[in-house]
Automatic annotation (TrEMBL):
Keyword Protein biosynthesis: no
Keywords: Membrane, Transmembrane, Transmembrane helix
Species of origin: Roseateles toxinivorans
Bilayer-spanning residue ranges: 10-28, 48-68, 75-93, 105-122
Keyword Membrane: yes
Protein name as annotated: DoxX-like protein
Phylogenetic placement of the source organism: Bacteria, Pseudomonadati, Pseudomonadota, Betaproteobacteria, Burkholderiales
Length: 123
């Protein structure tokens, strides 16, 4: 099956939404779910928690903007690398998220496949 240009564009915009929305939600929920996720992993240092939340939000925003404005094989591979790194980190901090019924980590398997297909298809 061959992906048409309009299909690639739709998939790319879906990824842009995921990354930008994740960045925005991380900031909106800074002292809510974002901090709770880290506290549930045993983290108690507010400065470190703030650094991790801000760092993750910035990385997500930059990747979302890069996917939107400068899509390329390199950008898809960077997004794939960061998604895998964040999934590994989340797995170490909160392995129970793999069993969550809404699949916050299991969905990353589909994202990895999508990013890989786009990366090998794009120059």
């Amino acid at each position: 099956m061959r992906l048409e240009a309009r299909d690639v564009k739709l998939l790319r915009y879906c990824l842009v939404f995921v990354w930008l929305a994740t960045s925005l939600v991380s900031v909106i929920e800074w002292h809510g779910q974002s901090a709770e996720l880290l506290r549930a992993a045993g983290m108690q240092q507010p400065a470190l928690m703030d650094t991790l939340i801000l760092g993750g939000a910035v990385v997500d925003a930059l990747l979302g903007l890069a996917l939107w404005l400068k899509p390329s094989r390199r950008v898809y591979l960077m997004a794939l690398f960061m998604m895998v790194a964040m999934t590994v980190l989340a797995s170490l901090l909160r392995p129970d998220l793999w069993l969550h019924p809404l699949g916050p980590l299991t969905k990353n398997v589909a994202l990895a496949g999508l990013l890989w297909v786009l990366a090998i298809r794009t120059r």
